[in-house]
Automatic annotation (TrEMBL), chain A:
InterPro entries: MetI-like (IPR000515), MetI-like_sf (IPR035906). This is ABC transporter permease. Gene3D superfamilies: MetI-like. It comes from Roseobacter sinensis. It is found in: Cell membrane. Residues 60-266 form the ABC transmembrane type-1 domain. It is a multi-pass membrane protein. It comes from the Bacteria. The keyword Transmembrane helix applies. Belongs to the binding-protein-dependent transport system permease family. CysTW subfamily. Signal peptide: none annotated. Keywords: Cell membrane, Membrane, Transmembrane, Transmembrane helix, Transport. PROSITE patterns: ABC_TM1 (PS50928).
Length: 280, 360
């Protein structure tokens, strides 16, 4: 009896969210799948064109490369920040946490534009370097992959820090103490005792950043200036410039599948369930 | 068994540790003899862990010196001190198997692979965990984790083992078993044990010497029997076992005998430090040193107010007009009477049963 009512309650509670997902997300996605095999004519022509096109291949390559480098950058920078916040008692800890969270309150668009102001030909960075006499001609800091990477790493950093921080805060300091008491140097204790315990946090940060980065649009579009065509921007081009709905949709499907593949491969090595749900 | 303090393996001089205004360690002096089983005993917050952590190198002293084999290690990092340590809560590395945990101290010392394998196996067998080498720590019970922690702490053959309440998380039965095992390991290995506990029975049954801490100060130290039979302060008399306390006036003295009067009771106390005692003294009287008998047989008349039967012993609270409630503990088969609330009895004790305490 309670079984039934509990079940019933579950569905009542889940229904609104589920309805929104189905109407505004699943249904349109299915629409895209459909377009990809019906426009401009029925069949897999779009997919054949996609596989044949070297531009598409280059774009996928750039996408994965940018996502991978962004992930590594976020991982290294984020690990250091998370480690410091989690392991050094300080009055500044709340402030540090606020600084990590702050970017979430500022739109990605604004943050990306700020980078344009900083990295442009006569942006703050170039001007300062020139005024100090380090360079004669301005450095090319944007409208190339470097600019995209700088901004991407900045935008993605909180997604790397937060899961790692949550994980590190759950690790008692007695393990490292025990290791040192048993003869390990500070570095050995970190490497063989602390680091392995942070791997779940690292994995969830890595997955989060990588998967988000694969589909990122605004930042590469603004900082790349049309020269660093990641797949989402490429799709936009197909649809807005060439009205090639079919090819655009096929590319979307490909991106979705690629992302799913990444998760599937990750699932072979780590327990996704515990990484994405338990955060411990 | 008392250890001659010829050359202490470890000595601590004037150790001070402050946390704000709180003195976690307040001018502590301590010498530890090689091969000794030394227990630090004290109530919660008395500074036991702080003292052990200072020895291990996790707590920086504000003042004082620690020497090991006559070399100063006060400022040495923990990994240079070569102590084996068992933590409160064990701290087994969760990402390593039991085998790797035990091998860890050997690996960081870069021993040969074959030696590591042999020694690891030897240690695990010693604590009867040989069959669990491939398990992860979370797959073990509390007692098993404790054994692994012990094997890990001794795998690199340290001369001193530091143990912080290693048995506190275990149930009573298992604890008693492991106490025996620890004790026999100690005599087997010849290693110095510095053992922290707040359980007085554990301290009494295992130690060669007990150091009693309170508020960061050493209250008294000595062999278990000495401490139990000759506590110096009310705190020690009360903390180590139970005691009745009597505040008495000294009315006379005769060689090693004090004549005492306390609230209508007059009695003699035999003690060897007669000269140091003033006109008033506080006396401690162990419950098992009190005799209970039929009215008129013993010194004082009293009335039973509570009885609790513990199997081999019987604890009786009797009320004396002047002295108030007194706890008597007697073997059940010895009492000529059957104590029950309201029963009129008499109580007494031997001249040497009372211990004269110093003012706290
Ligand atoms: N890091 C610290 N910061 C501030 N105070 C501390 C710190 N560590 C210990 N103390 C204080 O020092 C005193 C002694 O602590 P300690 O941990 O040595 O007690 P303990 O005898 O081991 O107690 P327990 O039996 O509960 O483990 C306590 O009052 C404790 O609150
Ligand atoms: Mg403690």
């Amino acid at each position: 009896m309670t079984q039934i009512t509990d079940n019933f309650r579950y569905w009542i509670l889940i229904m609104p969210a589920l309805a929104i997902m189905i109407i505004f997300y699943i249904y349109p996605v299915l629409g895209i799948w459909q377009i990809s095999v019906t426009e401009p004519e029925a069949g897999f022509g779009n997919y054949v064109r996609m596989v044949d096109s070297s531009a598409v291949r280059t774009s996928f390559l750039i996408t994965f490369r940018v996502a991978a480098i962004t992930t590594v950058g976020c991982l290294i920078l984020g690990y250091i920040v998370a480690y410091t916040i989690a392991n050094f008692a300080s009055r500044l800890t709340p402030l540090m946490l606020a600084l990590v969270l702050l970017p979430f309150w500022v739109s990605v668009l604004i943050r990306s534009f700020s980078w344009i102001v900083l990295l442009g030909r006569s942006g703050l960075v170039n001007d300062t370097l020139r005024d100090m006499g380090f360079i004669d001609a301005p450095l090319r800091l944007m409208h190339n992959e470097l600019g995209v990477l700088i901004a991407m790493i900045h935008v993605m950093l909180p997604f790397a820090i937060l899961p790692m921080l949550a994980n590190m805060r759950g690790i008692s300091d007695t393990y490292v103490k025990a290791a040192r008491g048993l003869g390990a140097s500070e570095w050995t204790a970190f490497r063989s005792v602390y680091l392995p315990q942070t791997l779940p946090g690292v994995m969830s940060g890595v997955l989060l950043v990588f998967v988000l980065a694969l589909g990122f649009y605004i930042t590469p579009a603004l900082l790349g200036g049309g020269r660093v065509l990641m797949i989402s921007e490429y799709i936009t081009y197909q649809i807005q410039e060439f009205l090639a709905w079919g090819l655009g949709s096929a590319l979307s499907v490909a991106l979705l599948i690629a992302t799913a593949l990444v998760l599937l491969i990750a699932a072979r090595f780590v327990n996704l369930r515990s990484i994405l749900l338990d955060r411990k | 068994m008392t250890h001659q303090m010829t050359e202490p393996i470890l000595s601590i001089r004037n150790a001070v540790k402050r946390y704000g205004s709180l003195h976690a360690l307040d001018h502590v002096d301590l010498d530890v003899a090689a091969g000794e089983f030394l227990t630090l005993l004290g109530p919660s917050g008395s500074g036991k862990t702080t003292l052990l952590s200072a020895i291990a190198g996790f707590v920086d002293l504000d003042d004082g010196r620690i020497t090991l084999h006559a070399s100063d290690i006060t400022k040495a990092p923990p990994e240079r001190r070569e102590f084996g340590m068992v933590f409160q809560g064990y701290a087994l590395f969760p990402t390593m198997t039991v085998r790797d945990n035990v091998a860890f101290p050997l690996k960081v010392r870069k021993r040969a692979a074959s030696e590591i394998a042999d020694r690891t196996k030897e240690c695990l067998d010693l604590v009867q965990m040989g069959g669990f080498a491939d398990r992860m720590p979370h797959q073990l019970s509390g007692g098993q984790q404790q054994r692994v922690a012990l094997a890990r702490a001794m795998s690199f053959k340290p001369q001193v083992l530091l143990l912080d309440e290693p048995l506190s998380a275990l149930d009573k039965k298992l604890r008693a078993d492991l106490q025996w095992e620890l004790k026999s390991l100690h005599s087997q290995l010849g290693v110095t044990f510095i053992y922290v506990t707040h359980d007085q029975e554990e301290a009494l049954s295992m130690s060669d010497r007990i150091v009693i801490l309170k508020d960061g100060c050493i209250q008294q130290q000595g062999a278990p029997g000495d401490l139990y039979n000759r506590p110096r302060t009310t705190f020690v008399a009360d903390f180590l076992g139970k005691s009745n306390f009597i505040d008495a006036d000294i009315t006379g003295r005769h060689s090693d005998i004090l004549h005492c009067v306390a609230k209508g009771a007059a009695f003699d106390v035999q003690t060897d430090n007669v000269d140091e005692i003033g006109n008033k003294a506080r006396l401690a009287l162990r419950p098992e040193r009190l005799r209970i008998n039929k009215p008129g047989v013993e010194l004082l008349a009293a009335k039973v107010s509570q009885v609790s039967y513990l199997g081999e012993r019987c604890q009786v609270i009797v009320k004396h007009e002047g002295l108030g409630d007194l706890l008597v503990s007697c073997a059940t088969w010895q009492t000529g009477i059957k104590p029950a609330p309201g029963l009129e009895v008499s109580i007494g004790w031997d001249q040497n049963a009372c211990v004269v305490l110093a003012a706290d």
